Amino acid sequence: MSDVIEAAVAALKERLGEGFDGSVKFVIEGEGAVVVDAAGVRAADEEADVTLTADADTFQAMLSGDLNPTAAFMSGRLRVDGDMGQAMKLGALLA
After folding, report:
1. Quick one: 3-89 is in which CATH superfamily?
2. pLDDT digits (tens, 9 = 90+) for 48-73
3. pTM for the predicted model, two decimal places
């Protein structure tokens, strides 16, 4: 597992706690994927209700609070595939 994925798992666990009602996959380009669901946060490449894709810098900025997820999406830095409602719910938790 890459250092970027390990850092993303740790940051998401800190921000989201034990889990998320639904399932979200974060695809960090060139690094791998992280899944968040009711079971918690883990490095995995599994099916999810919604998939969020961006580069490592964009995810780091969102997780640190320097970049609002909605702004990342609107500027084209974050791609969303799947259930937009789940994406918005997660975005509210990360903002």
Report:
1. SCP2 sterol-binding domain (3.30.1050.10)
2. 999 999 999 999 998 888 998 889 99
3. 0.89
